What we know:
The chain has nine helices and ten strands.
Amino acid sequence: MLNRTKDKIIQEVQKNGISECQEFFNKDKFEDLKKILINNKSVKGTKNSFFYRSKGKFLLRKLFNFEFANFLDCLKLINLSKNLKLNQLSSEIRGRKTKLVSIDSYFSEVSSSKVLDWHVDQAYSGNLKPKQFLNPDHSALKYFIYLTDVSSNNGCLGYIPGSHKILYFLKLGIFNDEIKYKPYWKLNDLRNIVQDDYYRNYLETKIKKELIDSFLEQSSFIINSPHDTQEYDFVLKKSSTLIFDEAGVHRGAETLKTNRLVVRFVYKDIHASD
Length: 274
């Protein structure tokens, strides 16, 4: 990966929460990755396939007789992440040390249903006390490596730029007992919170008013015009990679034309729990 490409990725993820890259792979590495997934039986006909990032976890899984991917395939994927220097890139994006916490593949069959509608990952469920919530500094960076082409009506990811900053400070305020906890997951719930004067006044002490206004405007458009949100979509060719902060608001589009297959590498702060 070229240094200028790396610098661009770091800047875009820090500013917008997301960046795309078509320069991660040469042809040979992509073909190696494709072979691993095609040959791995757990990918065929299943939604998720988890690969183990350490020998210990692999053996533990085997011991308890759960489904597991071939250990050699796990090693190949781990080595691939090392060759691509994903952990180094993640650390530079975060400004602190990170670690690989999971590798999996996600297979989506042709369907008229969204892979997942507009939401935020690891949102609070309402069943836990604020101090039990994840530290917002421990939210994940995700690398989606596409084995198939994706488009607005065929499995691509949509993302509201800058929304990761709003979510970071909202979580931080709840985590530090500075603001009251209120559950959210879907976009409409989050929007209602952000436009509430109580939460908005707090957020304006942390981030620029313009960023909050932009989020409210964009979220209103998405909610009221759900079929006209292509400007938020990342249309990519196979072998492309999408890097994003899971704290931001995103969704997976319907797979109307062809099946979708993506490999996901997930990185967190080195002190975060898996």
